[in-house]
Design a protein that fits this description.
It contains eight helices and 25 strands. Bound molecules: adenosine-5'-triphosphate. The site of adenosine-5'-triphosphate has 25 residues, from strand 3 and helix 5.
């Protein structure tokens, strides 16, 4: 049986991945948890999310499905933050006999949940039409994520994946400041990067894999395989870990991106990979955000932004000039693309006016006075006007990304990019 769960936490605490970790232990009483549990990130622009729009799926081999279902539901009732208006848990149970039938339907649903917007009614209709066992609490919005997570488990071979080792705090420490030895995260990063990423942000001297909210997570190490995230986690020093789980996940895969051939098709609450030409010099607006417009071949335009949290990435963006050709990826909200990555494809030439050079001696001529042209004092040669001289741009073509401290969960870090046709500049 596949069990999908979503929407159990609030800003005051809990985390659906924590409930997943508890259930991995407790469901052993009813059978065997098979494969890796899944942590599936859904559309990052959804306003109903608490933090990272995550849902969880587990696979349980059991002869007692009814008892396992009852246990899952009782734990959701007990642990979900039902009093929070935004918490609307959902649980979905797919029986083994239905795997093949539901595989394509839920694959489409997963893709839509990651890349687009789904109404609660659509999830409820699908559950009804396919006869899926489920339980929605309150308005049942969590059924969307729970169905999508089941779709991911049914279609494992279809999508790129990474791993995250999530360590959870002991319950009595929840809500208190986390005791961690910061230096141990830098050590773990030195020993396991680039197979792990986003543990620390070297440029901004930050530990980025430790949350600051009241949830039960102590830290999460992200990486390419189970062995490496476990090795990195074993190097961390801090308060005792209550429990942990290693999730297989679509984090760091760019699964959220749609390819936009034309800027006219772009919609809010969707994420894209798109191309265009920089139309005007980037402007820094109130709050430190850096914005510039791009235009596609058909003349459609969109504003692109490196917001203040992207820190040093804004220095790069400020170097763009009109005429530069770029490919960008990011999410669109209020008609503006929030840049996650940029490929600078071609740079427009930059010119500076200067006095003409003497064709004899090669030295710059001097002005002969206003509107009287230029002359070389030594060789007596003359020229009518200034010339344009191409100067080197303080920017190189290639692929760039926001720093780890500003990374979106789904964004594929450049350390995972293996293109040979372009210079890659991973942010550290
Ligand atoms: P949690 O740890 O509880 O999962 P979270 O930050 O991941 O916290 P949720 O509390 O799960 O966020 O809230 C996200 C809500 O949005 C869930 O109810 C989920 O079902 C729903 N949702 C996810 N993706 C979509 C989508 N594409 N369209 C509409 N609703 C969605």
């Amino acid at each position: 049986m596949i069990i999908g769960i979503d929407d159990t936490d609030s800003n005051e605490g809990m985390c659906t991945t924590y409930l997943g970790a508890l259930l991995i232990e407790e469901l052993q009483a009813y059978g065997t948890v098979e494969d890796h549990p899944l942590l599936v990130r859904l559309n990052p622009t959804i306003p109903y999310k608490t933090r990272g729009n995550a849902a969880v799926a587990l696979k349980l081999k059991t002869d007692f499905p009814e008892r396992a279902i009852a246990h899952v539901l009782s734990r959701i009732k007990e642990l979900a933050h039902m009093e929070c208006e935004k918490t609307n848990p959902g649980a979905v149970f797919i029986l083994e006999k239905d795997y093949e039938k539901l595989k394509p339907v839920l694959r489409n649903f997963l893709e839509k949940a990651v890349r687009s917007v789904i109404e609660i009614e659509e999830a409820k209709n699908l559950i009804f039409e396919c006869g899926i066992s489920s339980k929605g609490f309150k308005n049942g919005r969590g059924l969307i994520g729970a169905l999508a997570a089941c779709g991911a488990m049914l279609n494992l071979e279809e999508w790129d994946y990474t791993f995250e080792h999530l360590a959870y705090r002991q319950k009595e420490r929840w809500g208190t400041p986390r005791e961690i030895e910061k230096e141990s995260f830098f050590e773990a990063d030195r020993k396991t990067y680039p197979e792990t990423w986003d543990t620390v942000d070297l440029t901004n001297r930050l530990v980025v894999c430790v949350p600051h909210s009241a949830d039960p997570v102590l830290f999460g190490i992200r990486g390419e395989n189970q062995e490496i995230v476990t090795e990195a986690a074993s190097l961390i020093r801090g308060e005792p870990v209550g429990r942990f789980a290693v999730y297989r996940t679509n984090q760091g895969t760019d699964m959220h991106l749609l390819y936009a051939a034309n800027l006219a098709e772009i919609q809010d609450m969707h994420s894209y990979r798109l191309e265009g030409t920089v139309l005007a010099f980037p402007k820094t607006i109130h709050g430190g955000h850096v914005i510039f417009p791009i235009r596609d071949k058909e003349g459609n335009e969109i504003d692109c932004a490196a917001f203040e949290p992207t820190k040093n990435f804004r220095l790069l963006i400020r170097k763009l000039r009109p005429g530069d050709n770029v490919a960008l990826s990011g999410s669109v909200n209020s008609g503006t693309l929030n840049i996650e990555k940029i490929e600078i494809k071609t740079l427009s030439p930059l010119y500076k006016e200067e006095n003409p050079k003497c064709p004899n001696c090669g030295k710059h001529m001097k002005s002969s006075g206003q509107a009287q042209g230029f002359r070389c004092k030594k060789c007596k040669t003359q020229a009518a006007s200034k010339i344009l001289h191409q100067i080197k741009r303080d920017l190189a073509a290639g692929l760039y990304e926001v720093p780890p401290c500003a990374r979106r969960h789904l964004a594929k870090p450049l350390v995972r990019e293996h293109r040979s046709d372009v210079d890659i500049h991973p942010a550290r």
